[in-house]
Amino acid sequence: MAYWLVKSEPFKYSWDQFEKDKKTFWDGVRNYAARNNLKAMKKGEQVLYYHSNEGVEVVGIAEVVKEFYQDPTTTEEAWVVVDLKPVKKLKNPVPLSAIKAEPRLANMALVKLSRLSVQPVTEQEWKVILELAGEK
DNA sequence: GCCAACGTTGGC
DNA sequence: GCCAACGTTGGC
């Protein structure tokens, strides 16, 4: 079972909107590395939901409900989406500054590859994030 | 709004 | 296939 992290700009698609919708397809990925991660997602896997630009923090947990398929917003075959549903909002959102301050998270893709919009999260990292979020 | 980091494009 | 130029992302 793998873990993931997706980024969204709250202006464009916030966690609150996501909760209202109950489900969304994750579109707009136009980067091969991110695309490959989308393709690697399996149904039932858990995904951290991160707000970039504003907030700059992990705000919630989502789950993959449908594995990748052709991005309906483009006819270019290279691009895919997955369906996600909200699982829960974190008690305490985890800001990037806290992630950077946590030695156990020093190697997170979020820190090292800050521009990648869909990235894998290790099980250890997942646990630490939830711990910082006050979930347990 | 600035700028660093990094991915992509295109000329050779 | 290399690499400079350019565009975009995202933290601050």
From TrEMBL:
<feature type="domain" description="EVE">
    <location>
        <begin position="2"/>
        <end position="132"/>
    </location>
</feature>
<dbReference type="InterPro" id="IPR047197">
    <property type="entry name" value="THYN1-like_EVE"/>
</dbReference>
<dbReference type="Pfam" id="PF01878">
    <property type="entry name" value="EVE"/>
</dbReference>
<dbReference type="InterPro" id="IPR002740">
    <property type="entry name" value="EVE_domain"/>
</dbReference>
<protein>
    <submittedName>
        <fullName>EVE domain-containing protein</fullName>
    </submittedName>
</protein>
<dbReference type="InterPro" id="IPR052181">
    <property type="entry name" value="5hmC_binding"/>
</dbReference>
<dbReference type="InterPro" id="IPR015947">
    <property type="entry name" value="PUA-like_sf"/>
</dbReference>
